[in-house]
Amino acid sequence: MKDLTKGNETTQLISFALPMLLGNVFQQFYNMVDSFVVGRFVGTNALAAVGTAFPVNFFMISLIMGIFMGSTVLIAQFFGAKDKEKIKAVVDTTYIFLFVAGIVMTFFGILSAKPILSLMKVPPEIMGEAVTYLRIIFAGMLPTFGYNGVSAILRGLGDSKTPLYLLIISTVVNVVLDLVFVVVFHWGVAGAAWATVIAQAISFIGALIVLDKRVPEARFDTKGLKWNADMFRQMLRIGLPSGVQQILVSLGMMTLSGIVNSRGAATMAAYAAASRIDSLASMPAMNLSSALMSFTGQNMGAGKTERVKRGHLSAIGLSAAISIAMTLVSVFFGEQLMRIFTSDAEVIAIGSRYLVIVGSFYIAFGTMFINNGVMRGAGDVFIPMISTLLALWAVRIPCALLFSGPLGMGTDGIWWSIPAGWTIGLIFTSIYYASGRWKTKTAIRRPVGEVTEG
């Protein structure tokens, strides 16, 4: 486990974020493999089906992932305060919650897959494959929640390397099974879905084994698990706004997908492929934000507010440098990247425009996420939720409808709405961070004047 309250801020953030980044790159990689395999070996409609299923899956798990974020923040703050008893209470409550939530969401997801896709205006020729893919993914919801819940615990304890090692293993498994199930057995999108579910189950089991051997206070023991209502309330206080934020994001993605879906299979396939590349490009900023969240949690728990500020500046600098590099790749090599997924000229042209427009604003996206990472780590999660509501629903969706419709910009108008939302979100979070109100939201309460800077 890693103590983030000591040492050089930039070095600590890089060393903690890098394993998470590599892990998420691998996770995005096996998502991209799904798209690559079905796009190349099944067809454009299959690629569109997998792409349109993603925001639905994200919607279904959003609230739960937000509550896991609450676990990470609490564990990080109690770890910084050296309170092992409360760490154990949060861990036990997280385990119980993830199992109940996993079972409930499995059944709900399987039953609601088709109605949700119908609301998204998925064309009839794509509906069958999209429903099949989603229902299999939902069948594996328990290991999905399990892996993400255990990863949240590990991140709070300062361990970002173990999830990386497990993801590398599961990625290799997923790639191999994708090729076997789709290319050899010809199972189509169902094969890609089963490959993902099996890979996630392996990650979950591996994470439990590691925790059992290395972290006594985080050991999974069905006989010794105790539900702590007070800790769950604190998890909800911190995690629920983040979960609501993720729901707003997922609903926005689904609404945007509905707008995209109305323009036909080629636009759907282009959006599916380009958004996979976009997700990979945005990973560095998102993982720096997650690292900063744990960094902030531990240091706020230890009373080191000035160290948090220095970490924030370091993270912004790192994110800006990486974002510029990602922008150059997306703008100048977008067409070549699209060719990885498809040989359809129309799909490549539409997707390339997405990468040029959206990719040009990665620095705004990254800085917005860094600001949110500080606030979440400090326990001030309401503002990130508000910024998301503002950027997504007050800007992105209205702009997508306006630009692509009345203003006659076509699909380019949909793509321009994305950076428009990021820009507003960046302005809002920057103003709030400068106010300093986030410093008063931690779960650790100290007497007035008691602070330990370093």
Describe the structure in your own words.
- The chain is mainly alpha-helical and about 450 residues long.
- The protein has one domain (about 10-440).
- It has helices spanning about 10-40, 45-80, 85-120, 125-140, 140-155, 160-185, 190-215, 230-260, 265-300, 305-340, 345-360, 360-380, 380-405, 410-435.
- Helix 2 packs parallel to helix 9 (about 265-300), helix 3 packs antiparallel against helix 5 and helix 3 (about 85-120) runs parallel beside helix 8.
- The longest helix is centred in the first third of the chain and has 37 residues, at about 45-80.
- The model is unreliable at about 445-454 (pLDDT under 50).
Show the helix and strand layout:
Layout: H1 9-41, H2 44-80, H3 84-119, H4 124-139, H5 141-156, H6 161-184, H7 189-214, H8 229-261, H9 265-301, H10 305-338, H11 345-359, H12 362-378, H13 382-404, H14 411-435
Helix pairs in contact: 1-2, 1-6, 1-7, 1-9, 2-3, 2-4, 2-5, 2-8, 2-9, 3-4, 3-5, 3-8, 4-7, 5-7, 6-7, 8-13, 9-10, 9-11, 9-12, 10-11, 10-12, 11-14, 12-14, 13-14
